[in-house]
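Run log // design_07
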């Protein structure tokens, strides 16, 4: 996806999820608000894949 579109989508999503009314509804549903950058999200995904990949391999979990 073109970087300018990613930046625009990120900016609009950040505005939406940090709006007081939206934030209150999300938090009422026990959701944690994280309004980071696309780069921070990519790093979070990479860390999750590495962490949970090790757990999955150690547990011997296989796709069906």
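design_07 sequence
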């Amino acid at each position: 996806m073109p970087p300018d579109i990613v930046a625009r989508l990120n900016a609009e999503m950040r505005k939406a999820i940090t709006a007081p009314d939206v934030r209150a509804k999300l938090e009422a549903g026990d959701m944690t608000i994280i309004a980071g950058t696309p780069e921070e999200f990519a790093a979070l995904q990479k860390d999750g894949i590495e962490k949970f990949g090790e757990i999955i391999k150690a547990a011997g979990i296989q796709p069906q």
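Residues 3-59 form one domain.
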